[in-house]
Model the fold of this input.
Amino acid sequence: MSALHSPIPWNVIEGDSLLVGDSQALTILDCATPSGARQRVAEANAAFIVKAVNCHDHLVEALQFIADGYNNHDVNHVDFRVKAYQVALDALATIKESA
Done:
């Protein structure tokens, strides 16, 4: 049995060091905090990790809906195509909102 990951949303926690933490303030990752350009890269990496984790479930659900439609041969139904389009737009909106 595998362990569950820390609960989402994850967040970037800035302070003396650059941390990624979960919704219960548990530190998941301590990012290096060099100075200058390397610090900006570390900050961007932390933000990217948080964005990927927080969007993951929504993206998987969208892809599963679309895959299920193909498996059920629903792709020729207008209702499915409209819903698939909306699911894709919602998933993209989730990504853009977390930027």
Remarks:
- The chain has two helices and three strands.
- The chain has a mean pLDDT of 87.
